[in-house]
Amino acid sequence: xxxxxxxxKPDFHGAAGGEQARELYEHFVAKIQEMYDKxxxxxxxxxxxxxxxxxxxxxxxxxxESHDAEVIKTxxxxxxxxxx
Length: 84
Fold this sequence. Notes:
A three-stranded antiparallel beta sheet has the order 1-2-3, with no helix packed on it. It starts with 17 loop residues before the first helix and ends with a strand. The protein has one helix at about 20-35, and strands at about 60-65, 70-75, 80-84. Strand 2 (about 70-75) and strand 3 form a beta hairpin. The chain is α+β, with helices and mostly antiparallel strands. Helices cover about 20% and strands about 25% of the residues.
């Protein structure tokens, strides 16, 4: 798991090794497929390199915080602020 003890950026130094991580990932995907519609649960190639492009179009920020297992969702738009 990622540690965020030092700020908000995840630190993966204590993460599982490659083979153990792959086994955990495959187990997770299998459990989700059991609990949901298997045809709707897709996965890719574990540990594959990806090239991702992001285009921001407007001032929007989404923050998620957890307080004692309660998730607080904050969505900020130019003239609107919502808390769920």
